[in-house]
Amino acid sequence: MRRLPLTRLRDRYGASPLHLLLVLCSFALALYAGLKLLKGNPIAVALWFVGAALIHDLVLLPLYTLADRALQHLFPTPDSRTPQAGAGRVNYVRIPALVSLLLLVVWYPLILRRVPGYRVTTGLSADSFLGHWLLITAALFAGSGLCLLAGTVRRARGRKPPVHKR
Amino acid sequence: MKAQRPASSRDRLRATLFGSGAPPGPTRPEFWRSPLRGPWLTSVFGLVLLFGIPVMFVTGLLSYAAYNPDLAAVNDQTPDKGWLGFYLFSWPTDPSWLYRLNQGVHVTLGVVLVPVLLAKLWSVIPKLFSWPPIRSVAHALERLSLLLLVGGALFEFVTGLLNVQLHYVFPGSFYTLHLYGAWVFIGAFAVHIAFRVPVMVRALRSRRLRTELRVPASATGPEPLDGTGLVSPRPAPATMSRRAALGTVGLGSLVLFAVTAGQSIGGSLRRTALLAPHGQEPGKGPNGFQINKTAAAVGIRPADIGPQWRLVVRGPGYENTLTRAQVLALPQHEAALPIACVEGWSTDDQHWAGVRLRDLALMAGFRGPAPEVFVESVERGGSFGSTVLRANQVRDPRSLLALRVNGADLSPDHGYPARIIVPANPGVHNTKWVTRLTFGASS
User: Fold this and answer.
1) Domain with B404 in it: what CATH number?
2) pLDDT in tens, B321-361
3) Domain count, chain B
4) Does residue B23 sit within a domain?
5) Is B164 buried (19+), middle (13-18) or exposed (0-12) by CB count in 10 A?
6) Nearest CA distance, B178 vs chain A (angstrom)
7) Residue among A40, A52, A99 minimizing CB distance to B255
8) Does residue B96 form part of some domain?
9) Each residue's pLDDT tens digit, B172-225
10) Residues of A (3-32) whose Cβ lies below 8 Å from B
11) Helix spans in A39-127 (H)
């Protein structure tokens, strides 16, 4: 009989009471810190916070998914029954492109020269970042090209009929 | 949690509930085609973050403590902190590379975790659109908590990455946003851990990493359909193995590490930090090491630091005004100490020479243990024109009012005529262009 109210809570609430306690505890802390966070410029900060939550899921993800679909259209993955015929060729473009874009996403203010005060503040030149990024990107694609070449050679050798058969 | 049912009856249940109920598009589970998505893959990324995020949080809190914000109002960039400063303590001066290490880890790890965080978000995307959007009160609260979790995580990463690149486009002071944002985030993170760790452990045990890493793309299939909502019921053929997916994320982290870490390691490795803000040296010679803010950036005029410059040393009932020659005539001492910035970059030990702060405290009338000191710069405006150093910092024999570095006079960008250098002190508290030292005062 003693467990009955808890069971009823679980049925109506949808989870255990411990769930409710933990969530409420975290919300109280979030509210305590959140009120301080929002002080000063509440609307802009709230927009940044919610925007941060959605920027990947609603902006970046659709963009890179579409780009990836386009890439796969150019290099279609062969039927799974014939996996040898260049399976995963698309990855030789996909992976270096992804790493290059990742570098751009992380360091874009410097790469795209969005920081007007950089030079006067640090005494350093702001001109090198774009060039570095392009060279790294070139190196990534070159490295991937070498991997593709090595893979092709290896597959070609593997496909040769074995000469010395035991 | 709900009882596990056999997959088949569960599928039928899903089809009845979701297939007809959910509007066409991303709310339908079959919209998501990747065969790689599933609790195992999500859990691998989750495991990395489970260890990485607490390190970020703790190093962040330590960095705040390093400013000694409880000592004086001028040290505190977040005076509204309330109980969030409960843990503050007097920041030590040993080892002298403590702040260097702390911030190097905080910033470099943050950069390195970006691909893992993005991959984790990619892997759980079907959950964002799960249908119905709200199943129960518990589900509604959990989704709100996830908003705080995901919003908080990205808010922290974005403000951090923008700040280290001096791209101050965020709406307010970095210190306020980053500190309070971290506290909003961490509660949701703890709740997420509490609810998800059992699921994560079960998923990680469902397949062995070593075995999984041997599976080629051609043999890669989806994880078994389960109640997590992550596995696609209509998977496309795999274009990539799980090994390749994990490898790509790992490669992303590795490349980010390679083009970033050099700015914290310094020496000849600095040049390897090809995309990091402090990957180049500003010049050659004794003063050719990293500058946080140049004299021009904070409005230092030649007259401020010319022959008219004076150092005022004050104590209770004592005031002495000295020229630079007079300061140079005081006993000079040397200390090898790094400069380490909150932005994560740092320098190797530089060889500083100047007057010990505790000798100046003695001059100001403190015959016993030296007290704290209020340091003022000729800097105009800015958040760090003045600072208070704690007694333990003043008493350290390596803490100097430095006049020279690496055998030469300080350059204007490094704080000529005189600057503070204290072991393990955050860079901005090593005040440059010092003009007044008030011992025994905290403002």
Assistant:
1) 3.90.420.10
2) 999 999 999 999 999 999 999 999 999 999 999 999 999 99
3) 2
4) yes
5) buried
6) 9
7) A99
8) yes
9) 999 999 999 999 999 999 999 999 999 999 999 999 999 999 999 989 999 999
10) 12-15, 19-20, 22-23, 25-27, 29-30, 32
11) 42-54, 61-74, 91-111, 118-122
